[in-house]
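Lab notes, practical 5.
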Amino acid sequence: MSISIRETGEHLKALMGAVKDYVFPHYSDIAPAEALKTVRKRLEALTGDEICEAFLETLPEIRRLLETDVEAIAGADPAAGSLREIVYCYPAVTAMLHYRTAHELHRLGVPVIPRMITEHAHSVTGIDIHPAARIGEGFAIDHGTGVVIGETTIIGNNVTIYQGVTLGARNFRYDEAGRPINQPRHPILEDGVTVYSNATILGRITIGEGSVIGGNVWLTHSVPPHSRILQGSAESLRMP
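Output from the prediction step:
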């Protein structure tokens, strides 16, 4: 039985609140067991029993990954007074909570709902992450406004990006009917990469492990591990 847009929105709002209570139990006045009941009730209404049960099995891993994200933000931002402050206040946590939830639902084949979840986070935080993107653990977004992470992006572990970063497509291929073909077209960022504010990285290129991409850089070619790319530099420079 289909449900209305309004009902869907109500279920999603309650669902994401309960997921947050479950994954951050130290910062909630709701017991994890009660939060889990709400997740089950709301998600069953949206997806049915089978998908709901499969998603519930992913929640411990979502919690683990979000804990690594919070720790990564704490390690990257000296302005963060505490982990509590990060969980309560930082838009990156909201964006990643929604992304990691939506990603698992996308992986389970749920239509539309994953996009609704991430687009809500986009409207609230200014951080636009497609639910199909693949993002490893320890992902830190500092400030975050204007960040765009496209559908086929792959991000390794312990990556940090700053506000205004775009991980996008450079161009598209089209089929005989003139429709764009959905194929890998966004960047791959290997482990330990840092991308500073307003950098634009386009196309199916690879940013090698441990590389640093400077602010305002426009990059459309792959760079080897431990590169340093600065604005106005066409070549990668080895970090000392």
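Observations recorded by the TA: The CA atoms of residues 61 and 215 lie 33 Å apart. The longest helix spans residues 5-23.
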